[in-house]
C-alpha cells in the first residue's frame, strides 16, 4: 500500500492515495497504520478518493472532484478535519492532481473550500461554527464548563485561567454521554493576548494531539461569543459571530482563524514529510 506522511502544526496523517475507491480500509487496518510503535504512526488517515468513486451518494453529487475520507487513529470516522483538509490539499497539488488556487474538497461535513499556492500556508473555509449551548468535562477530578460547538464534528471548548501546559490530559476527559451521544473533541483554551489564545485538545478517536484545526476554530468561536452570551444570540448559522482574526497557539505551532460575518477560515502550515510503501504482507 502506497502512502505519504504529512502534518499540519504536528497534527499528523498517513495519506492513502485511492483515486478509484478500491481500498478496503477497515477500522483495524487504520489503527495498525496509525500505531506509533508497530505501524507508521499518525493521528489519523486521509484517504484520497475521487468524489465520483466515494460510494456515498451525497459525496458523489457534491460537485467536488476529490473526497477526503478522514479516519481517527482508533479507526472511527470523523466528519471533518481542519488540519487534515489543508494537508490533503497540499498533497493534491504536490501530486499534480490539482493546481494551486482555490477549489472545493468534499468531506462528510460538506464541501469545504481551500486556497493555496505552490508552497506556503494553506487556508480552508471551515463553515460557520454552530453554537449548541453549554457543556461540562472533567479532568483529574476537576469539572470544566465550556461551550458545545459543532464544526461539522462535535466540540466542547472550555476556557481555563491557568496555562494549558499544566493540564493532565494523559486520560480522556470525562463527559456526559447524553450530552454528547457521538462523543466529543474537548478543547481547553486560555486568553494570552488580544485575540490571542493558547489551546490543548483531547480528540475523539485519537487522544491528545498537538493540534486540531476544527478545535482551533471552535475555541476562537467560544472566545468570540464570550462568557455570558445567551444561546439565542448565536444559533446554528454562526453568522452572528463578530468579524475578526484570532491567533491560536497549539503545542505543534500556530494557526490563524478568521470570522468574516458569514463563515470561518483556518490558515496555517501543511507539510508532506515522507512517502513509501507498506512492507509486503504486513497488513
Ligand atoms: N484533528 C482534526 C479533527 C479530527 C476529527 C476528530 N478527532 C473527530 O473525531 O471529530 C482537525 O484538525 O480538525
Automatic annotation (TrEMBL):
It catalyses: (2S,6S)-2,6-diaminopimelate = meso-2,6-diaminopimelate. Substrate binds at residues 11, 72, 82-83, 153, 185, 203-204, 213-214. The keyword Ribosomal protein does not apply. Pathway: Amino-acid biosynthesis; L-lysine biosynthesis via DAP pathway; DL-2,6-diaminopimelate from LL-2,6-diaminopimelate: step 1/1. PANTHER family: DIAMINOPIMELATE EPIMERASE, DIAMINOPIMELATE EPIMERASE, CHLOROPLASTIC. This is Diaminopimelate epimerase. PROSITE patterns: DAP_EPIMERASE. NCBIfam families: DapF (TIGR00652). Signal peptide: none annotated. Its EC number is 5.1.1.7. It is an enzyme of class 5 (isomerase). Belongs to the diaminopimelate epimerase family. It is found in: Cytoplasm. Homodimer. The active site is at 81 (proton donor), 81, 212 (proton acceptor). One of its GO terms (molecular function) is diaminopimelate epimerase activity. Keywords: Amino-acid biosynthesis, Cytoplasm, Isomerase, Lysine biosynthesis.
Amino acid at each position: 500500500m502506497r502512502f505519504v506522511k504529512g502534518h499540519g502544526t504536528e497534527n499528523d496523517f498517513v495519506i492513502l492515495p485511492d483515486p478509484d475507491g478500491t481500498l478496503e480500509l477497515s477500522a483495524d487496518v487504520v489503527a495498525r497504520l496509525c500505531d506509533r510503535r508497530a505501524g507508521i504512526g499518525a493521528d489519523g488517515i486521509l484517504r484520497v478518493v475521487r468524489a465520483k468513486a466515494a460510494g456515498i451518494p451525497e459525496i458523489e453529487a457534491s460537485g467536488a472532484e476529490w473526497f477526503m475520507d478522514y479516519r481517527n487513529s482508533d479507526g472511527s470516522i470523523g466528519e471533518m478535519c481542519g488540519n487534515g483538509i489543508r494537508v490533503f490539499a497540499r498533497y493534491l497539488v504536490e501530486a499534480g492532481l490539482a493546481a494551486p488556487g482555490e477549489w472545493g474538497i468534499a468531506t462528510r461535513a460538506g464541501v469545504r473550500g481551500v486556497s493555496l499556492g505552490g508552497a506556503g500556508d494553506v487556508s480552508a473555509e471551515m463553515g460557520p461554527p454552530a453554537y449548541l449551548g453549554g457543556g461540562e468535562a472533567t479532568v483529574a477530578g476537576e469539572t470544566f464548563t465550556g461551550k458545545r460547538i459543532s464544526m461539522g464534528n462535535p466540540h466542547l471548548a472550555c476556557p481555563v485561567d491557568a496555562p494549558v501546559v499544566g493540564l493532565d490530559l494523559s486520560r480522556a476527559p470525562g463527559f456526559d454521554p447524553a450530552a454528547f451521544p457521538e462523543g466529543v473533541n474537548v478543547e481547553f483554551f486560555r486568553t494570552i493576548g488580544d485575540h490571542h489564545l493558547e489551546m490543548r485538545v483531547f480528540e475523539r478517536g485519537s487522544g491528545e494531539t498537538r493540534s486540531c484545526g476544527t478545535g482551533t476554530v471552535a475555541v476562537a468561536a467560544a472566545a468570540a461569543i464570550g462568557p455570558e452570551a445567551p444561546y439565542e444570540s448565536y444559533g446554528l448559522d454562526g453568522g452572528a459571530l463578530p468579524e475578526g482574526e484570532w491567533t491560536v497557539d497549539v503545542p505543534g505551532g500556530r494557526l490563524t482563524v478568521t470570522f468574516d460575518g458569514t463563515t470561518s477560515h483556518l490558515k496555517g502550515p501543511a507539510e508532506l514529510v515522507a512517502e513509501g510503501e507498506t512492507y509486503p504482507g504486513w497488513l
